[in-house]
Amino acid sequence: MLIGYILEGKALDDQWNPIINRVSDDGSIIGIRFFNEFGRFILDEDEKILVEIQDDKVTIEDDWKGNLWRGSPHYIFKGYLAKGKTIVTNTRLFHFRTPDPFMSWGENANILGMPTAIIQGVKAKKAKDIGLMEFCEMSYNEIVKIRIYPVSITYDVLFNWKRYNIYTNEHKNDYILFKIIEKNLQSKEIKRTTEKNITTICYLDPKELDLSQHWKRDDQLKKAKKYEKREKYEKAIVQYQKILELFPDDGGTKRKIENLSKNKGG
Questions:
Q1: 35-81 tens-digit pLDDT
Q2: Could you give the CA distance from residue 116 to residue 240 in angstroms, rounded to a whole number?
Q3: In angstroms, rounded to a whole number, what is the distance separating the alpha carbons of residues 143 and 135?
Q4: Mean pLDDT for the chain?
Q5: pTM of the model as a whole
């Protein structure tokens, strides 16, 4: 899953910096590119476009654990802000759109409050003025569950040990997408159930992946970074050590503890 901006066909992150794909042998940075110099969508090997949907809206919500705590979803990509174009291939869904400053200000004011809405509106206007496009991308390999409701379909995605909900706000397009995605995931289907008019298709056995361990890691990492920021290195080290208890082979955490121990000693 990837979310960001597009400028001259190249992918940018939320701060409008290039999203790096790899570094070449000579040290130059090679970024991700979605469109070539002629404006044509770039396909991977053996990838083909199956359908292109105009005037579509796609929404991405953050992981479900957060939803349970907050009682409402936290939007990562806000489908209600603007319509765009969705390109559906045999391996991924790619959606892009022009930023809408007015919607970013008006709709966000009701949800996020006026100060945040103003900031979002100004950013959207600047992005539009310099020719940026907003985009989101989902690979079918990241889908762990599909939930089919009477009037909508939601895709549950696992990315970097976090779970996200992805759906289209234009429900007339739901079954067009579903037929394509289901066909490409048939070989991975594990279980299908229907209860109270909701059909659930699972592509990952929950017993094979205990996400609670990764949720604990996220919580401890947040605490550790807060302590680091306050220069309370001993408390930060304790949190990193708890992470190592969950993931003993985490080399990055081991190096972090070593570096913090030096700071503590200095």
A1: 999 999 999 989 999 999 999 999 998 865 544 444 556 788 988 88
A2: 33
A3: 18
A4: 84
A5: 0.74
CB 59 within 8 A of CB 169: yes
Joined tokens for residue 170: 């234009």
Please give the Cα distance from 260 to 48 (Å, whole number).
Answer: 49
DSSP character at residue 142? G
pLDDT number for residue 137:
95
The CA distance from 127 to 135, in Å, is 13
Domain extent listing, the chain: 2-205, 211-265
Strands lying side by side in the sheet with 133-139: 10-12, 2-7, 133-139, 92-97, 84-89, 49-56
Give the tokens for residue 146: 């599909």
Q: What is the 3-state secondary structure (H, E, C) of 38-102?
A: CCCECCCCCCCEEEEEEEECEEEECCHHHHHHHCCCCEEECHHHCCEEEEEECCEEEEEECCCHH
